[in-house]
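Try this one yourself first.
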Protein backbone atom coordinates (compact mmCIF):
# COMPACT_ATOMS: atom_id res chain seq x y z
CA UNK A 1 0.00 0.00 0.00
CA UNK A 2 2.84 2.36 1.02
CA UNK A 3 4.64 1.54 -2.24
CA UNK A 4 1.56 2.39 -4.31
CA UNK A 5 1.18 5.71 -2.49
CA UNK A 6 4.85 6.58 -3.11
CA UNK A 7 4.50 5.65 -6.79
CA UNK A 8 1.37 7.81 -7.10
CA UNK A 9 3.17 10.68 -5.33
CA UNK A 10 6.21 10.44 -7.61
CA UNK A 11 4.10 10.31 -10.78
CA UNK A 12 2.07 13.32 -9.62
CA UNK A 13 5.25 15.28 -8.87
CA UNK A 14 6.74 14.28 -12.22
CA UNK A 15 3.62 15.53 -14.04
CA UNK A 16 3.75 18.83 -12.17
CA UNK A 17 7.46 19.27 -12.91
CA UNK A 18 6.99 18.29 -16.56
CA UNK A 19 4.09 20.69 -17.03
CA UNK A 20 6.03 23.48 -15.33
CA UNK A 21 9.02 23.12 -17.64
CA UNK A 22 6.85 22.59 -20.71
CA UNK A 23 4.99 25.82 -19.96
CA UNK A 24 8.29 27.63 -19.37
CA UNK A 25 9.75 26.43 -22.66
CA UNK A 26 6.64 27.28 -24.67
CA UNK A 27 6.61 30.80 -23.26
CA UNK A 28 10.33 31.46 -23.50
CA UNK A 29 11.47 31.72 -27.10
CA UNK A 30 15.23 31.75 -26.52
CA UNK A 31 15.06 28.76 -24.17
CA UNK A 32 12.83 26.93 -26.64
CA UNK A 33 15.42 27.47 -29.35
CA UNK A 34 18.20 26.28 -27.02
CA UNK A 35 16.32 23.06 -26.24
CA UNK A 36 15.57 22.40 -29.90
CA UNK A 37 19.22 22.93 -30.80
CA UNK A 38 20.26 20.40 -28.19
CA UNK A 39 17.79 17.89 -29.64
CA UNK A 40 18.95 18.34 -33.22
CA UNK A 41 22.44 19.54 -34.09
CA UNK A 42 22.96 21.25 -37.40
CA UNK A 43 25.74 18.93 -38.54
CA UNK A 44 24.68 15.36 -39.38
CA UNK A 45 27.50 12.80 -39.15
CA UNK A 46 25.35 9.77 -40.02
CA UNK A 47 26.72 9.50 -43.58
CA UNK A 48 30.37 10.35 -42.91
CA UNK A 49 31.55 6.78 -42.33
CA UNK A 50 30.09 5.70 -45.69
CA UNK A 51 31.34 8.73 -47.63
CA UNK A 52 33.88 7.44 -50.14
CA UNK A 53 35.48 10.69 -51.30
CA UNK A 54 35.16 12.97 -48.23
CA UNK A 55 34.16 15.71 -50.69
CA UNK A 56 33.81 18.36 -48.00
CA UNK A 57 37.58 18.32 -47.50
CA UNK A 58 39.15 16.77 -50.61
CA UNK A 59 37.43 19.28 -52.88
CA UNK A 60 38.49 22.25 -50.78
CA UNK A 61 40.41 24.81 -52.85
CA UNK A 62 42.48 25.97 -49.88
CA UNK A 63 43.49 22.91 -47.85
CA UNK A 64 45.69 20.17 -49.28
CA UNK A 65 45.64 16.49 -48.29
CA UNK A 66 48.02 13.83 -49.57
CA UNK A 67 45.14 11.39 -49.98
CA UNK A 68 41.54 10.65 -49.02
CA UNK A 69 42.57 8.82 -45.87
CA UNK A 70 44.38 11.85 -44.49
CA UNK A 71 41.27 13.93 -45.13
CA UNK A 72 39.13 11.27 -43.45
CA UNK A 73 41.40 11.26 -40.40
CA UNK A 74 41.02 15.03 -40.01
CA UNK A 75 37.27 14.75 -40.46
CA UNK A 76 37.09 12.04 -37.79
CA UNK A 77 38.93 14.31 -35.36
CA UNK A 78 36.34 17.01 -35.86
CA UNK A 79 33.42 14.60 -35.54
CA UNK A 80 34.85 13.65 -32.14
CA UNK A 81 35.02 17.32 -31.21
CA UNK A 82 38.80 17.38 -31.40
CA UNK A 83 41.12 20.00 -32.83
CA UNK A 84 42.19 19.63 -36.47
CA UNK A 85 44.44 21.61 -38.79
CA UNK A 86 41.35 22.11 -40.94
CA UNK A 87 40.02 24.58 -38.37
CA UNK A 88 42.91 27.02 -38.73
CA UNK A 89 43.51 26.50 -42.47
CA UNK A 90 39.83 27.06 -43.33
CA UNK A 91 39.10 30.39 -45.04
CA UNK A 92 35.38 30.29 -44.14
CA UNK A 93 34.11 30.19 -47.74
CA UNK A 94 31.34 27.67 -46.85
CA UNK A 95 32.03 25.64 -50.03
CA UNK A 96 32.18 22.37 -48.07
CA UNK A 97 28.47 22.73 -47.33
CA UNK A 98 27.67 22.61 -51.04
CA UNK A 99 30.23 19.91 -51.82
CA UNK A 100 28.70 17.44 -49.35
CA UNK A 101 26.56 14.98 -51.36
CA UNK A 102 24.48 14.15 -48.27
CA UNK A 103 23.55 17.72 -47.33
CA UNK A 104 25.08 17.11 -43.91
CA UNK A 105 26.24 20.72 -43.38
CA UNK A 106 29.92 20.10 -42.54
CA UNK A 107 30.65 23.80 -42.18
CA UNK A 108 28.31 23.91 -39.21
CA UNK A 109 30.65 21.48 -37.46
CA UNK A 110 33.72 23.44 -38.53
CA UNK A 111 32.46 26.83 -37.37
CA UNK A 112 31.33 25.41 -34.03
CA UNK A 113 34.79 23.95 -33.40
CA UNK A 114 36.56 27.07 -34.66
CA UNK A 115 34.79 29.02 -31.94
CA UNK A 116 35.57 26.37 -29.34
CA UNK A 117 39.32 26.38 -30.10
CA UNK A 118 39.63 30.01 -31.26
CA UNK A 119 41.15 28.58 -34.43
CA UNK A 120 41.03 31.66 -36.66
CA UNK A 121 43.23 33.75 -34.35
CA UNK A 122 41.50 36.99 -35.31
CA UNK A 123 42.78 40.10 -33.54
CA UNK A 124 40.70 40.21 -30.31
CA UNK A 125 40.01 43.95 -30.57
CA UNK A 126 38.79 43.58 -34.17
CA UNK A 127 36.56 40.71 -33.13
CA UNK A 128 35.17 42.50 -30.08
CA UNK A 129 34.48 45.72 -31.99
CA UNK A 130 32.83 43.88 -34.88
CA UNK A 131 30.50 42.03 -32.53
CA UNK A 132 29.56 45.26 -30.73
CA UNK A 133 29.12 47.45 -33.81
CA UNK A 134 26.44 45.27 -35.40
CA UNK A 135 24.39 44.48 -32.29
CA UNK A 136 20.62 45.15 -32.56
CA UNK A 137 19.20 48.08 -30.62
CA UNK A 138 17.57 47.62 -27.24
CA UNK A 139 14.30 49.03 -28.58
CA UNK A 140 12.78 48.70 -32.05
CA UNK A 141 11.45 51.80 -33.78
CA UNK A 142 8.41 50.66 -35.72
CA UNK A 143 7.65 51.93 -39.22
CA UNK A 144 4.23 52.28 -40.76
CA UNK A 145 3.95 49.57 -43.41
CA UNK A 146 1.25 47.72 -45.30
CA UNK A 147 1.52 44.13 -44.00
CA UNK A 148 -0.18 42.83 -47.13
CA UNK A 149 2.64 44.04 -49.38
CA UNK A 150 6.26 42.81 -49.59
CA UNK A 151 8.90 44.68 -47.60
CA UNK A 152 12.46 45.12 -48.85
CA UNK A 153 15.09 44.45 -46.19
CA UNK A 154 17.99 46.78 -46.90
CA UNK A 155 19.87 45.21 -44.00
CA UNK A 156 22.55 46.89 -41.87
CA UNK A 157 24.35 48.20 -44.94
CA UNK A 158 21.45 50.07 -46.51
CA UNK A 159 23.33 53.37 -46.65
CA UNK A 160 26.43 51.80 -48.17
CA UNK A 161 24.35 50.01 -50.80
CA UNK A 162 21.92 52.89 -51.42
CA UNK A 163 23.11 53.62 -54.96
CA UNK A 164 22.24 50.04 -55.96
CA UNK A 165 18.67 50.36 -54.68
CA UNK A 166 17.42 53.12 -56.93
CA UNK A 167 15.15 53.37 -59.95
CA UNK A 168 11.82 51.80 -60.79
CA UNK A 169 12.76 48.38 -59.42
CA UNK A 170 12.98 49.81 -55.91
CA UNK A 171 11.25 53.19 -55.75
CA UNK A 172 7.79 51.82 -54.95
CA UNK A 173 8.92 49.23 -52.42
CA UNK A 174 8.35 49.80 -48.73
CA UNK A 175 11.43 48.86 -46.75
CA UNK A 176 13.10 48.28 -43.41
CA UNK A 177 16.79 48.63 -42.69
CA UNK A 178 19.36 48.76 -39.94
CA UNK A 179 20.75 46.52 -37.23
CA UNK A 180 17.32 45.49 -35.97
CA UNK A 181 16.82 43.44 -39.14
CA UNK A 182 20.45 42.36 -39.66
CA UNK A 183 20.83 38.59 -40.02
CA UNK A 184 24.35 38.49 -38.49
CA UNK A 185 25.48 35.59 -40.71
CA UNK A 186 28.72 37.49 -41.32
CA UNK A 187 29.91 36.09 -37.98
CA UNK A 188 30.49 32.75 -39.68
CA UNK A 189 33.62 34.45 -41.04
CA UNK A 190 34.67 35.28 -37.49
CA UNK A 191 34.03 31.86 -35.91
CA UNK A 192 31.22 33.27 -33.78
CA UNK A 193 28.24 31.10 -34.59
CA UNK A 194 27.03 31.72 -31.04
CA UNK A 195 26.45 35.41 -31.84
CA UNK A 196 24.14 34.50 -34.72
CA UNK A 197 22.14 32.11 -32.54
CA UNK A 198 21.97 34.58 -29.68
CA UNK A 199 20.61 37.37 -31.88
CA UNK A 200 18.31 35.27 -34.07
CA UNK A 201 15.32 35.39 -31.66
CA UNK A 202 15.68 39.19 -31.41
CA UNK A 203 15.62 39.67 -35.18
CA UNK A 204 12.68 37.31 -35.60
CA UNK A 205 10.78 39.06 -32.81
CA UNK A 206 11.38 42.38 -34.59
CA UNK A 207 9.85 40.93 -37.75
CA UNK A 208 6.77 39.95 -35.75
CA UNK A 209 6.51 43.37 -34.11
CA UNK A 210 6.85 45.12 -37.47
CA UNK A 211 4.18 42.86 -38.95
CA UNK A 212 6.23 41.76 -41.96
CA UNK A 213 4.74 38.82 -43.85
CA UNK A 214 6.81 38.88 -47.05
CA UNK A 215 10.39 40.09 -46.88
CA UNK A 216 12.49 40.69 -50.00
CA UNK A 217 16.07 39.97 -48.93
CA UNK A 218 18.62 42.10 -50.76
CA UNK A 219 21.58 39.92 -49.75
CA UNK A 220 22.24 36.19 -50.04
CA UNK A 221 23.13 36.19 -46.34
CA UNK A 222 19.76 37.57 -45.29
CA UNK A 223 17.83 35.12 -47.42
CA UNK A 224 20.11 32.28 -46.30
CA UNK A 225 19.41 33.14 -42.68
CA UNK A 226 15.67 32.62 -43.07
CA UNK A 227 15.70 29.90 -45.73
CA UNK A 228 18.57 27.77 -44.42
CA UNK A 229 20.13 28.77 -41.09
CA UNK A 230 16.91 29.03 -39.08
CA UNK A 231 15.31 25.81 -40.40
CA UNK A 232 18.42 23.71 -39.87
CA UNK A 233 18.77 25.11 -36.36
CA UNK A 234 15.10 24.49 -35.58
CA UNK A 235 14.67 28.23 -35.02
CA UNK A 236 10.99 28.87 -35.55
CA UNK A 237 9.93 31.59 -37.97
CA UNK A 238 6.48 33.22 -37.82
CA UNK A 239 3.99 30.87 -39.54
CA UNK A 240 2.83 33.55 -42.00
CA UNK A 241 6.34 34.81 -42.82
CA UNK A 242 7.92 34.28 -46.25
CA UNK A 243 11.45 35.31 -47.28
CA UNK A 244 11.87 36.25 -50.96
CA UNK A 245 15.28 36.30 -52.62
CA UNK A 246 16.05 39.58 -54.36
CA UNK A 247 16.65 37.67 -57.60
CA UNK A 248 13.18 36.14 -57.53
CA UNK A 249 11.73 39.62 -57.12
CA UNK A 250 13.90 41.06 -59.92
CA UNK A 251 13.03 38.28 -62.35
CA UNK A 252 9.29 38.53 -61.75
CA UNK A 253 9.38 42.31 -62.09
CA UNK A 254 11.28 42.05 -65.37
CA UNK A 255 8.83 39.44 -66.69
CA UNK A 256 5.92 41.73 -65.87
CA UNK A 257 7.67 44.57 -67.74
CA UNK A 258 9.27 42.45 -70.46
CA UNK A 259 8.14 44.82 -73.21
CA UNK A 260 10.38 47.49 -71.64
CA UNK A 261 13.45 45.26 -71.42
CA UNK A 262 16.31 46.01 -73.81
CA UNK A 263 18.86 43.25 -74.36
CA UNK A 264 22.31 44.26 -73.11
CA UNK A 265 24.31 41.84 -75.31
CA UNK A 266 27.04 41.54 -72.72
CA UNK A 267 29.33 38.70 -71.60
CA UNK A 268 29.80 38.61 -67.86
CA UNK A 269 31.61 36.58 -65.22
CA UNK A 270 29.38 35.96 -62.22
CA UNK A 271 30.92 36.05 -58.75
CA UNK A 272 28.85 33.92 -56.38
CA UNK A 273 28.88 34.99 -52.75
CA UNK A 274 29.97 32.68 -49.94
CA UNK A 275 26.48 32.67 -48.44
CA UNK A 276 25.01 31.43 -51.70
CA UNK A 277 26.60 28.08 -50.82
CA UNK A 278 23.84 27.61 -48.25
CA UNK A 279 21.13 28.36 -50.81
CA UNK A 280 22.47 27.05 -54.15
CA UNK A 281 18.93 26.87 -55.53
CA UNK A 282 18.92 30.69 -55.66
CA UNK A 283 21.67 30.60 -58.29
CA UNK A 284 19.09 29.42 -60.84
CA UNK A 285 17.55 32.90 -60.78
CA UNK A 286 20.84 34.33 -62.07
CA UNK A 287 20.54 32.31 -65.28
CA UNK A 288 16.89 33.27 -65.70
CA UNK A 289 17.66 36.95 -65.28
CA UNK A 290 20.66 36.80 -67.62
CA UNK A 291 18.59 35.14 -70.34
CA UNK A 292 15.88 37.74 -69.96
CA UNK A 293 18.16 40.79 -70.21
CA UNK A 294 20.45 39.45 -72.93
CA UNK A 295 23.51 38.71 -70.80
CA UNK A 296 25.76 35.69 -71.32
CA UNK A 297 27.16 34.19 -68.13
CA UNK A 298 30.47 32.80 -69.40
CA UNK A 299 31.15 29.16 -68.57
CA UNK A 300 34.42 29.64 -66.74
CA UNK A 301 36.46 27.50 -64.36
CA UNK A 302 35.65 29.35 -61.14
CA UNK A 303 31.88 29.56 -61.30
CA UNK A 304 28.87 27.62 -60.07
CA UNK A 305 29.84 24.82 -57.67
CA UNK A 306 33.53 25.53 -58.28
CA UNK A 307 33.20 29.25 -57.60
CA UNK A 308 36.09 30.97 -55.87
CA UNK A 309 35.72 33.12 -52.77
CA UNK A 310 36.24 36.87 -53.25
CA UNK A 311 38.91 36.59 -50.51
CA UNK A 312 37.69 39.72 -48.75
CA UNK A 313 38.02 38.14 -45.30
CA UNK A 314 41.50 36.67 -45.92
CA UNK A 315 43.47 39.66 -44.58
CA UNK A 316 41.52 39.55 -41.31
CA UNK A 317 42.41 35.86 -41.09
CA UNK A 318 46.10 36.65 -41.60
CA UNK A 319 46.20 35.19 -45.13
CA UNK A 320 47.28 38.20 -47.23
CA UNK A 321 49.48 36.25 -49.64
CA UNK A 322 46.62 33.84 -50.29
CA UNK A 323 44.34 36.82 -50.89
CA UNK A 324 46.49 38.11 -53.75
CA UNK A 325 46.84 34.71 -55.40
CA UNK A 326 43.14 33.95 -55.09
CA UNK A 327 42.00 37.21 -56.62
CA UNK A 328 44.58 37.01 -59.41
CA UNK A 329 43.50 33.47 -60.32
CA UNK A 330 39.86 34.49 -60.23
CA UNK A 331 40.18 37.62 -62.37
CA UNK A 332 42.50 35.95 -64.87
CA UNK A 333 39.90 33.21 -65.23
CA UNK A 334 37.29 35.84 -66.11
CA UNK A 335 39.56 37.30 -68.77
CA UNK A 336 40.46 33.91 -70.20
CA UNK A 337 36.80 33.15 -70.88
CA UNK A 338 36.09 36.49 -72.52
CA UNK A 339 34.07 38.31 -69.87
CA UNK A 340 33.51 42.04 -70.28
CA UNK A 341 32.39 42.60 -66.71
CA UNK A 342 32.27 40.97 -63.30
CA UNK A 343 28.79 40.82 -61.78
CA UNK A 344 28.02 40.35 -58.09
CA UNK A 345 25.16 40.00 -55.69
CA UNK A 346 27.26 40.80 -52.63
CA UNK A 347 28.44 44.44 -52.40
CA UNK A 348 31.26 43.28 -50.12
CA UNK A 349 32.54 40.98 -52.86
CA UNK A 350 32.58 43.96 -55.20
CA UNK A 351 34.31 46.08 -52.57
CA UNK A 352 36.96 43.38 -52.18
CA UNK A 353 37.57 42.60 -55.86
CA UNK A 354 36.40 45.72 -57.67
CA UNK A 355 39.68 47.62 -57.96
CA UNK A 356 41.59 44.58 -59.23
CA UNK A 357 38.80 43.76 -61.68
CA UNK A 358 38.83 47.35 -62.91
CA UNK A 359 42.60 47.42 -63.37
CA UNK A 360 42.28 44.38 -65.62
CA UNK A 361 39.88 46.28 -67.87
CA UNK A 362 36.61 44.73 -66.69
CA UNK A 363 33.59 46.62 -65.42
CA UNK A 364 31.94 45.95 -62.06
CA UNK A 365 28.18 45.61 -61.61
CA UNK A 366 25.71 44.41 -59.03
CA UNK A 367 23.21 42.21 -60.89
CA UNK A 368 20.31 44.48 -59.94
CA UNK A 369 22.16 47.32 -61.71
CA UNK A 370 22.22 45.29 -64.93
CA UNK A 371 18.46 44.87 -64.53
CA UNK A 372 18.10 48.63 -64.23
CA UNK A 373 20.23 49.12 -67.34
CA UNK A 374 18.01 46.68 -69.24
CA UNK A 375 15.08 48.89 -68.27
CA UNK A 376 16.83 51.88 -69.82
CA UNK A 377 18.24 53.43 -66.65
CA UNK A 378 21.75 54.78 -66.17
CA UNK A 379 23.79 53.40 -63.27
CA UNK A 380 27.08 55.22 -63.92
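Now uncover the answer:
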Amino acid sequence: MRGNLLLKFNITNFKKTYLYYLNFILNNNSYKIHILNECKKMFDSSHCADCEKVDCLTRCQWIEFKDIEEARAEKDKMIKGEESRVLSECVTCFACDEYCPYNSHPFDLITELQEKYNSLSINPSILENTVKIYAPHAELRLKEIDPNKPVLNKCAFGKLDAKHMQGQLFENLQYVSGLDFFCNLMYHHYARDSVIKERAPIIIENIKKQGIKEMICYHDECYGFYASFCPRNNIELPPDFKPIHIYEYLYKYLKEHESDVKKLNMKIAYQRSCSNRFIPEADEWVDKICNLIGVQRVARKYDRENTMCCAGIFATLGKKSLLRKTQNDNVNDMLEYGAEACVYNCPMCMESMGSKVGRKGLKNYILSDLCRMALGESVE
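Discussion: DSSP finds 15 helices and eight strands in the chain. Residues 1-40 have pLDDT under 50 and may be disordered.
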